[in-house]
Design goal:
With about 350 residues, the chain is α/β, with parallel strands linked by helices. It has helices spanning about 15-30, 45-60, 80-95, 115-125, 140-145, 165-180, 200-205, 235-240, 255-260, 275-285, 295-305, 315-325, 330-335, and strands at about 1-10, 35, 40, 70, 100, 105-110, 110, 125-130, 155-160, 185-190, 210, 225, 245-250, 265-270, 290. Helix 1 (about 15-30) packs parallel to helix 2 (about 45-60). It starts with a strand and ends with a helix.
């Protein structure tokens, strides 16, 4: 029986995303795991738990995630919380021998916390530490954090590194952590898909209406291209990226057709008006959702900007896309095996 706890130095570092990817990887290997988030600031309505339960555990027929304890300003675990944690894990292990624990952060409610260390000790779990990269991230600080877990530490992941700094950070962290005896699992770049709004969110944000019954409205959209007069060929210009939408005027069927042929995932048609029947037929055949908005093209682009300011952790399509990209940077099979 294996228990793997994923811990981060602060909120929004990528714990839920990594836990989701590993749960999917274990299920695909026919070795499904249970999930437990022992502490939460909103135990009854935690969106991480709700997402993983609905989108990952339920489709697998897995057991429900045990209820969480309230995450309080106290940096230590109470006797009642320890008892609840033990009971929850024992119950979960009765039906699922492998468990992924999304542990508390090393900084809790604005202050240093030993909760994660206590959970690891109580459950005798392996630990993966995940850090969100910043210019202030210091190997000495990582070493200090790691020491508290001793031999339970399985390794360290550095997440959200800007792409142009990937080689530098990978080399520096690998050398520095190795010299301190800390297992280094890898560096992950900032990935657009984790901030990509879905087709449905774009439609809601712009007040768009569907030209025909939409499909794949949960599709994440990483980029938006503005359709206009371009020097390149249509397929070359509109076929450069995966997971893109094209924003163009309703009165430009030439741009709309070029976008559809090039594999665009969504068409946003501005300034009102219906597309031609031919465009409707092409979009229907290719399964591309088409929405019409009243705003002008540049107004629509400006209105979409706020959608990229938050993570899209609670979208299965984004997590699946994240998993595909993550394979380039981490050994997911090794990580998943830590829970076996």
């Amino acid at each position: 029986m294996g228990i793997l706890q994923i811990i981060s130095h602060r909120p929004q570092a990528g714990k839920t995303s990594l836990a989701s990817v590993l749960l999917l990887a274990l299920a695909q290997a026919d070795k499904p795991a249970g999930y437990y988030k022992p502490f939460s600031t909103q135990p009854a309505t935690d969106p991480d738990i709700a997402f993983i339960q609905a989108e990952i555990l339920n489709p697998q027929g897995g057991p429900p995630a045990p209820p969480s304890s309230i995450l309080e300003p106290s940096s230590t675990m109470s006797e009642s919380q320890a008892h609840q944690l033990n009971e929850a894990v024992t119950t979960l292990q009765a039906s699922q021998p492998r468990i992924l624990v999304e542990g508390p952060d090393l900084e809790s409610v604005g202050q240093a916390s030993t909760l994660a260390v206590e959970v690891a000790s109580l459950l005798d779990s392996r630990v993966v530490l995940i850090y969100c990269f910043s210019k202030d991230l210091d190997p000495a600080g990582i070493s200090q954090d790691s020491a508290a877990f001793g031999d339970r530490l399985a390794g360290v992941v550095v997440n959200c590194v800007t792409k142009h700094r990937m080689p530098e950070v990978r080399q520096a962290m690998s050398a520095e952590l190795a010299s301190r005896g800390i297992p280094f699992l890898g560096v992950v770049p900032e990935l657009r898909i984790m901030h990509a709004p879905t087709v449905a969110q774009v439609a809601e944000n712009l007040g768009g209406h569907w030209i025909q019954e939409p499909t794949q409205t949960g599709q994440p959209l990483e980029r938006f291209l503005i359709g206009g007069n371009i020097m390149d060929s249509g397929p070359e210009y509109y076929g450069r990226y995966e997971n893109q939408a094209v924003i163009t005027r309703s009165q430009r069927p030439d741009i709309q057709l070029a976008s559809l042929v090039a594999g665009t995932k969504c068409l946003v048609l501005t300034e009102g008006g219906e597309p031609t029947e031919y465009i409707k037929a092409e979009a229907r055949e290719r399964g591309v959702p088409v929405m019409v908005v009243q705003a002008k093209t540049l107004e629509a682009v400006e209105a979409l900007a706020p959608l990229f300011n938050s993570s899209r952790t609670h979208n299965l399509a984004s997590i699946q896309g994240f998993a595909l990209q993550l394979k380039q940077y981490l050994d997911l099979e090794h990580l998943a095996s830590l829970a076996l």
